[in-house]
């Protein structure tokens, strides 16, 4: 049977795509094949528009769209391959993850071209969004019947971290065996990080380790989608510094402003300080953007002001990091676990309010969200002395189905007693899911928290377990194959 909510999101499904199948897998294949054709058409239109216009910001937004379409074409192709051999909950989980990312890519593109007067491109994007919503509804219906296949996990790094990688993640820098070394003084194989990334083989099935020696590296680094299983290791978050200053005010898009932008799956970053030094007056200026599946960020400092950490899409795990910023400084629409980290709000511009998170889930069938577990949510010294002037909130809903849970964490007194802030009046207050469970500290009291339909004070451990690594998103429909460090889930 065709899931009922397919008609809700894409009522023309049967007639437009010529659907004959009565089973979900056949319907999904039809949608995805059509989506591939439409994405290639959207690429052609975006290229044609880019040639005609002279506006720098519009050209940058269209360039983002072209990259996002390339990423999406690869993901849909991967999903079609998995669909041909669909045999387990793991396959369904991958499909949900990949298609959730594709939908996020489409929205990122549409947001970027919003001010460009090109109805044909926008109509194509809206059509792609509708079809991907329908595809996710089908995947959700297929996943539901196999939910009993998800197994509980025990402690350790995620299961997609291979044994060799575990040893690297647990070891000191001096014990890391690198494929190449980056050193500013010429003592290594390369003097820039980008050169070392470029040296990595495309679509590698084995780990490629880049050791970046102590120093300040002023460059914007991109790990492209073909650079899979790359690991970048520094000499410590106080000694190896990657710094940039691209920002929206000076003409960059938010997507392109990242000092380090990652799209290659299986990425690992360790013992490095990533910063964007544009400053608060430059507004959106990203330090780290992750658009790569099954990524690990371990023992790193991620440092900027507005939009510090762009958890753009796919599965991401952060451990023992310091994340520093002001407005929406952890944002995006990946499936993200941030564990045992310091989350530090700093002093913003006058009249600004600090927002720790701005999660961007756009559809109820996306298995995305931010889980902050066993972290310290604190104020920087400059904010602490003036915290009464600059309210800090745990988050606000960037998109309609925004989902963020803070649990078992120490919340500082700089966090406003209401806890959470509106984005624009009552937008998303009924459809978001914000939750708090078993937190501690002077800012953890919930008696004065917001009274929104979508806000939850979680008291039942079984409810809280849905937001552990084992069952973070939709009852754990995909995380059984990944996992992170935890004890009995909580």
TrEMBL record:
InterPro entries: Invertase/methylesterase_inhib (IPR035513), Pectin_lyas_fold (IPR012334), Pectin_lyase_fold/virulence (IPR011050), Pectinesterase_Asp_AS (IPR033131), Pectinesterase_cat (IPR000070), Pectinesterase_inhib_dom (IPR006501). SMART domains: PMEI. It is found in: Secreted, Cell wall. Pathway: Glycan metabolism; pectin degradation; 2-dehydro-3-deoxy-D-gluconate from pectin: step 1/5. It comes from the Eukaryota. Transmembrane segments: none annotated. One of its GO terms (molecular function) is pectinesterase activity. Its main location: secreted. The active site is at residue 328. Its EC number is 3.1.1.11. It is an enzyme of class 3 (hydrolase). GO terms for biological process: cell wall modification; pectin catabolic process. In the N-terminal section; belongs to the PMEI family. This is Pectinesterase. It comes from Salix viminalis (Common osier).
